[in-house]
Structure formats: C-alpha cells, structure tokens
C-alpha cells in the first residue's frame, strides 16, 4: 500500500476590510462612474483646502498693514512692478494687496458663512419639520403658515431684513465684530423653509409605518420616536438640500457683501472683493474683479453639480 498525503485544508478567504467594502459600495461606484461629480468634487476639495490653509498657501498676508506697499498697487498679473520689481501671480489691487492672497482669505469668510448658515437652517428646518409632521394639529398649521408667508418673499430680501434688524439692535462698537455672525443668522433664518417642508412631508409618510407603530406600542416617547426612528429615515433628502443650499448660501453672502450689507471691509469675503473690483473694471484693472468672480463661480457651480449628482445617487428610483 502507498501512503497518501493528507488533504490540504482550503485557505479561508479573508473578509474584505471596511475600506474595501466602502470602495465597492453602490454609492462610491456611482461616484466613480460620474466624471462631472469627480471633477466637481476635486474642485471643491481644492478650494476648501486652499481656504482652510490660507496662512500656509498664501504668499502674503493681505490684511497685515506691515506687509503692504502702496507702490505695488495695480500691478498686472505676472508682470513686474515698475517701481519695486515685485511680481504677483494674479496681480494686486489699489492698496498693493496680492489678489491671490485676498481671494484665499476672502474664500475662508465665504465658506465659513455658507457652512454655518446652512447648518443653522438645516437644524431649525429639520426640528420644525419633524414637529409639524409628527404632531399635526395647530403645531403643524402654525409652522407651515409661517413657512408659506416667508416663501412669498425673496430669500435675499428676507436676509437683508433680518440683517438690518439684527445690526440695528447691536451696539455700534460691536457691529464690525458681530457682522459675520449677524450675516450667518440672516442667511440661516431665510433658508430654513425648504428643509422644514421636505422633512414634514417625509415625516407624514414615515409616522404611519409599522416600525413607528411598534415603537408607540412599546412605550417610546414622541421625542425618542422622532429622533431615533423617523429622523434617520428622512435624512437623505436633507443632505441633498443642504449641499445645494450651501452654494446658494455662498452666493447670498456674496450678494449681501456686494451690496455693502454683508462682511465688513476689515474681513472682506469674495462678495466684498467683487464689489471693490467692479469699481476698477472700466479703468483697465480687470483682474481685481475677474479673478474673485471666477473663484466664486467655480465654487458655486462645482457645489451645485455635486448636489445634482448626490440627488440622483440617493434616489432609490434611479438605482
């Protein structure tokens, strides 16, 4: 008889890592197959990182008077100044500030206002939408009628009204310090309605489903049901609205600052830089206006395109 070698046990397959599972998920697969979304994400990520790390990326601090030289004023992009010999990538403004550096620092203000305003609007709208949809009755009637009245006015006019009232009750010595926070409050309070309407509609559907009825039978309190059961199931449309609202909030901030009722001159945003640049547009210094406006356009357009893809990716009917 011949000896036979014992069979080699099969090597157990290694379970895929979390990163591998995430990479193979339907969400990221859809993202990889959408070149417009990939390019938009890269543009947004680049601009956000440049704004966050502006002190490291910017070659100059445009708001430090000790680093400014008025002789560098109105230097064209890429050309050496006739008096100092200094060269600036995107040129300089009337005060000799590097336009590239002012864009990075101004974008920090615009992004901070946009993110904060959307966060305020989202929290307020989701809370009021959950209350209106789950409670019903007079609570729903009051919240929805207030939302309907606010929808009859353009959002920018509502923001200007709130900004004017809040600035009027702020002591004069604190107005410049509080201007950014007042701006966030104005834009946030003018943008909560769409969150509330979407969440209220989704809550009306979810509260009649079996899992909510089961939570009631086991004695869950209404607040617990809204936060732990209904809220996670209505977040998909909220994320889509938040993404698109971010672009609108940045544009609203730029519009208010362009009109002179937004960010103070000591902390200029992209809108303030555009307002300053348009004063020199027809005198030949086009770069002071064009480059901040192009940055705002690229940022808002990329966020909008990313929001459009996110809306389609989270829509179960399109899967």
* Coarse morphology: flat
Kindly name the structural category.
Answer: mainly alpha
Tally of DSSP β-strands: 0
CATH architecture: Orthogonal Bundle
Number of helical regions: 14
- Unreliable residue stretches: none
In the CATH scheme, the class would be Mainly Alpha
Strand content: under 5%
CATH topology: MetI-like fold
- CATH level-4 homologous superfamily: MetI-like
Q: What's the domain count?
A: 1
Q: Please tell me the overall pLDDT.
A: 85
Q: What string gives the helices and strands in order?
A: HHHHHHHHHHHHHH
The radius of gyration over CA amounts to: 26 Å
Question: N-to-C terminal Cα separation, in Å?
Answer: 62 Å
Helix content: 55-70%
Largest sheet: none
Pfam family, one: OppC_N
Family: Belongs to the binding-protein-dependent transport system permease family.
GO cellular component, one term: plasma membrane
Protein name: ABC transporter permease
Name the descriptors:
single chain; MetI-like fold; 14 helices; 65% helix; ABC transporter permease; cell membrane; OppC_N; transmembrane helix
How would you portray this structure in words?
It is built from 14 helices and no strands. It has helices spanning 18-23, 26-32, 35-52, 54-57, 99-135, 137-151, 155-169, 175-189, 193-206, 210-217, 222-230, 235-258, 270-278, 287-313. Helix content is 65%, strand content 0%. The model has no long low-confidence stretch (mean pLDDT 85). The radius of gyration is 26 Å and the shape is flat. The protein is mainly α and 319 residues long. It has one domain: MetI-like (MetI-like fold), CATH 1.10.3720.
């Amino acid at each position: 008889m011949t000896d036979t070698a014992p069979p080699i046990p099969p090597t157990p397959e290694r379970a895929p890592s979390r990163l591998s599972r995430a990479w193979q998920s339907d969400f990221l697969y859809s993202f990889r197959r959408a070149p417009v979304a990939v390019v938009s994400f890269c543009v947004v990520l680049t601009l956000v990182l440049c704004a966050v790390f502006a002190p490291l990326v910017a070659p100059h601090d445009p708001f430090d008077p000790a680093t400014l030289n008025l002789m560098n004023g109105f230097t064209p992009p890429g050309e050496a100044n006739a008096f100092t010999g200094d060269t600036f990538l995107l040129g300089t403004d009337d005060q000799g500030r590097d336009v590239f550096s002012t864009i990075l620092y101004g974008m920090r203000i615009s992004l901070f206002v946009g993110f904060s305003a959307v966060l305020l609007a989202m929290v307020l709208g989701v809370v009021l939408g959950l209350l209106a949809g789950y409670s019903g009755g007079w609570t729903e009637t009051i919240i929805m009628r207030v939302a309907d009245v606010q929808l009859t006015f353009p959002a920018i006019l509502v923001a200007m009204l709130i900004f004017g009232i809040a600035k009027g009750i702020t002591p004069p010595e604190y107005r410049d310090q509080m201007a950014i926070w007042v701006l966030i409050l104005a834009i946030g309070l003018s943008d909560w309605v769409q969150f509330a309407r979407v969440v209220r509609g989704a809550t009306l559907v979810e509260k009649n489903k079996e899992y909510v009825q089961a939570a009631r039978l086991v004695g869950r309190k209404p607040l617990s049901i809204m936060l732990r059961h209904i809220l996670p199931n209505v977040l998909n449309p909220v994320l889509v609205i938040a993404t698109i609202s971010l672009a609108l909030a940045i544009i609203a901030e730029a519009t208010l600052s362009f009109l002179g009722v937004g960010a103070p001159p000591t902390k200029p945003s992209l809108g303030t830089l555009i307002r300053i640049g348009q004063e020199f547009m027809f005198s030949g210094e086009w770069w002071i206006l064009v480059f901040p406006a192009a940055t705002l356009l690229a940022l808002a357009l990329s966020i909008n395109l990313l929001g459009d893809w996110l809306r389609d990716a989270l829509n179960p009917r399109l899967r």
